[in-house]
Every structure is written in structure tokens, then in C-alpha cells.
Amino acid sequence: MTNTLGMHRTVTEAVRSWSDRLVALSHGLHDEPETALQEHRSAARIGDLLETAGFTVNRGVADLPTALVATRGSGDLVIGFCAEYDALPGIGHACGHNVNGAAAVGAALALAAVADELDLTVKLIGTPAEEDIGGKVLLLDAGVFDDVAAAMMVHAAPDDSVGASSLAIGAWDITYRGKPSHAALAPWEGINALDAMTLAHTAVGLLRQQLPPGVAVHGIVTEGGQALNVIPARTRARCEVRALTVEQLGEVWQRVRACFQAGALATGAELELRPHGSDFADLRQDPDMTEVYVRALGGLGRTAMSRYGETMASTDMGNVSQLIPTIHPTIGYDTDGAKQHTPEFTAYGKSPGADRAVLDGATALALTGAGLATSQAQRSRLLDGVRRRQRSQPACDGANGSPPTRAVRLAPGA
């Protein structure tokens, strides 16, 4: 019979013994922020630390140079921790991924201390590009999560919370191609790609009134022409659509796509639509795992707000959660009111509160993994889930059973 009190002590002591290295890891990620698929130093820091601790580390998995998998233990129950470490362009770790990544590493180190006793395998999955194309989706597709019975991470935030869902999201790159001509001498000979983009954005703006509550459409124009006195022959933009579920996302995108098609039809420009990265599914947090996590967090003197029925922004952890029992709680620290994705939030990423969040998040996650392993009911449930997944075959090649996303090209006037 497992000594629960001794196991708890071993896990918490393991986090304490690694605390200086974990805080240094968080600070190092923060000091050298790297954006999606460029996280070479970040991935190296994490891989090197885990190798020091005796983990077997595989780098560049799934043909992603900045992804990694580190394992320790040999039990049939595989507990997965997802480490994020990409930053945002221009504003660094404004989403707190330095805290997320360091906490996940700490959880893996701590749970590894009892892995043999609990007959489990600890699997740290380094997941790049959460802020862009969705590294977790690519890793799912590559089979990296196939043996994972439970997946978890914490996310930096101004407060502690559990249970929230997230919005499904899809992103598309839009290109209009027209025909250049002199803007003053012969504008009628041109096909204005900027006009096509303007019409499309106007149509999207009008569409918003007809969209369901919780749905959002937003984007930026990345190219509007090359010279003031030349009819723009090419314009580019990126558009994101968010919805409550991945199914609703597909429905809304059809209406948004029609707005871009309207720009092509009205101007005669050629339209090209290409998916940018993978669709992110809505997050489904496992209530049993959440209950174990809340107890562990309470033992650290922290109280998490329950946010069941609420939605966060969007995360590729949603795709993981549609297949594998998952938790994605937030771990909080004082940011003086600053919200994620702002330079002000970035400034608090190395604060004493953020450092405590790294260590408390690591401890709570590791204790959650240990709690799942010591409960015969939970262990059986999780292992049965792995066996069912491994017997089943995917219905289609889209994320979470949704239809596959394909590039679309429309000829002028189509």
C-alpha cells in the first residue's frame, strides 16, 4: 500500500530541491523570449535540465525542431505534462509561458521522484507555437500523445481558477491578386486588390450583428499595396474566427468566407484562402482531475475560483482535451490589474508572485498526477481510456473529428 503522506512529502521536497533551477528556468525563458517555432534556446534549456535529472530526452520530435519529449519511469500509466515556452512578437512573455513551461518541468521532476513507487511513466511534452499554429495539434497528429492517460498544465494568470472552457479558433491567410495600373492615368485598366480587401472587411463588420453570442471575428491587413500611385495588385490579411465549439467554428467560417468571396466577386480580383496553422478546439476540463488538483492546491494555501460555464480565450490544449482527460487551470500572481497579452503583464513575469506560481503550480500538478496514480478507480478509468483510443481509428483527418481544412482559390469573379 502506498504511503500517501510519505509520497506527498517526497513530491513537495522534490520541488523544493529544484526550486532555484526552476525559477532560473522561468527567468531565463522570460529574458530571452522566442516566438513560435523559433524557441531554440528555450527548448534547449528545458531539455538540458531534464537530462540532468535523468530523463530520456528526444528533441525535434514530430519534425518540429523546437518540440521535445522527456520521459522517466516505466509504468503503464503515463502522466503527461505540457510545457509551453513561446512568446508573443514584440511584447515577450505577455501570456506568461515562462511560468507555464517552468511549472510543467517542475511537475515532471517532482512526480519522477515517486514514479517507480507509483508504477507510472512521467512524460514532459515540450509544445511550441501555442500562440500561432498550435504545436500540440501537430504533436497529437504525430502520435506523441497516444500513450498519455492524463494531460495537464497550469497557465499564468492574475488569479487561480479551474474549470473554464476556451473558445475554438481558426485562422486563415487571405490574399487578393489584382492587376496594377497607373492610379491617375489609367486606373480603369487595373483591378484593385485593396478595394477587394476593403469590401471584405466591411462585409465582415456588417456580419457581426448576425453572429451568435460568444463568436468573434478579428484580423489584420499585412499588405495593402506597394506604391501610392499604383493600383494595388496584391493585398494580404490574416483573419481569426472564434466560436464556442469547434462545430460552431466550422459553421461561422462558412459565413466569414463568403465575405471574402464577395470582395473578389465585386472587384474581379483573384482570392486565395489558406488555413494558418491548425484549428484549436474548445477546452473540456476533466472534473475528476480538477477535484484532485483543487485539493492539492488547497494544501498549498491557495483557493481556486470555479469557472465552469465560463470561457477563456483559446488554446491548443483544447484539442488534447477532446481526446484525453485534461486539466488547464490558471495559476495566479499579482499583476496590478494587467491582463495577458499586454506589455504590462510581461513586466510581472519575474516577480516574486510569478516565481511562487511556478513552484506552487509544479507542486499541485505533481500531486495531482500522484493522486490519480494512487486511486484505483482513477487509474482504471484512465488506462481504459488509453486502450479505447488505441483501438479506435480517426474518422477523418481534421482536428477532433472536424472536416479537414483545405486551401481555397477562387478565380476572378467566381
Shape assignment: elongated
CATH topology of the largest domain: the name is: Aminopeptidase
Let me know the largest β-sheet: 6 strands, mixed
State the name of the first-level CATH class of the largest domain.
Alpha Beta
**Radius of gyration from the alpha-carbon trace, in angstroms:** 23 Å
The amount of helix comes to 25-40%
- How many strand segments? 15
- Assembly context of the chains: single chain
Reading the helices and strands in chain order gives HHEEEHHEHEEEEHEEHEHEHEEHHHE
Beta fraction: 15-25%
- Average the pLDDT over all residues and give the rounded result: 94
Regions with pLDDT < 50 over 5+ consecutive residues?
395-414
Straight-line N-to-C gap: 70 Å
**Helix/strand class:** alpha/beta
Overview of the molecule:
The structure is a single chain. 40% of the residues lie in helices and 19% in strands. Strand 1 and strand 2 form a beta hairpin. It is of the alpha/beta class and 414 residues long. The protein folds into two domains: 4-164 and 281-374, Zn peptidases (Aminopeptidase); 168-279 and 398-410, 2-Layer Sandwich (Alpha-Beta Plaits), CATH 3.30.70.360. The termini are far apart. It has helices at residues 4-31, 40-52, 97-112, 115-118, 135-141, 193-207, 246-267, 287-298, 317-321, 343-346, 352-374, 376-391; strands at residues 56-59, 68-73, 77-84, 120-127, 150-152, 155-157, 161-162, 168-177, 216-223, 234-243, 270-275, 305-306, 326-327, 330-332, 408-410. The strands form four sheets. It has a six-stranded mixed beta sheet with strand order 1-2-4-3-5-13, sandwiched between helices. The radius of gyration is 23 Å and the shape is elongated.
